[in-house]
Amino acid sequence: MSQLIYNTFDYEVQPPRLAPDYKSTVLRAPSKPLVVVKQSLSELTGPVFGDFNLGEFDHDLTKNSVKNGEPMGERIVVHGKVMNENGRPIPNTLIEIWQANAAGRYVHKVDQHDAPLDPNFLGTGRCMTDAEGNYRFYTIKPGAYPWGNHPNAWRPNHIHFSLFGANITNRLVTQMYFPGDPLLQYDPIFLGVPPKGRELLISTFDLSITEPNFALGYRFDFVLRGHQATPFENV
């Protein structure tokens, strides 16, 4: 996977480092041209996660922090594949997710949104892709929340994803959105992605993975390079 991370930045797909409507980028965007560091053996090789120890419920956010009952909200299954531009799977990729709960609140001291915390939902999980590059999470559909970027600003429902490659320096971060969300047309983070890349950030409803009487299914694939590469925040 490490070799897939170091490739030409596609400005037709990847979000710009400065998007003025997304106010925090004004403060953190580079003010000078970036210096490209020559790759060395340490960037192209390193320890892999093939023997990484995961807990039994690390991938199941509906169970991994239960204290006194079931987490509140709509249960969902999120699955997909990590692949290169030719559709070849990338195994042994460590994927981490974090998200707000069903009421739109994170378990974090900085989040002061006036919405309830769920004692049975922490909002974080991780898993490894299998030999065919597949992954699966069970979780609760996150709620929208206000975020103060501009008057009456609300973030659409979304899940944060982090992908680690062959070593811990190879990390890609992105967000997954849900189909039909009316807030997408107002969200400067989503709109900061070039039009060509926006649809690549929206999951698709998947009845084939939906579990009867339990959880709706959504598919979200990752493509790590090429013209259909998933938009990432840190490419």
From TrEMBL:
GO molecular function: protocatechuate 3,4-dioxygenase activity
Enzyme nomenclature, EC number: 1.13.11.3
Domain named Intradiol ring-cleavage dioxygenases: residues: 78-106
Coiled-coil portions: none
Broad EC category: oxidoreductase
Alphabetical keyword list: Dioxygenase, Oxidoreductase
Transmembrane segments: none
NCBIfam families: protocat_beta
Family statement drawn from the similarity comment of this UniProt entry: Belongs to the intradiol ring-cleavage dioxygenase family.
Name used for this protein in its record: Protocatechuate 3,4-dioxygenase subunit beta
Organism whose genome encodes this protein: Runella salmonicolor
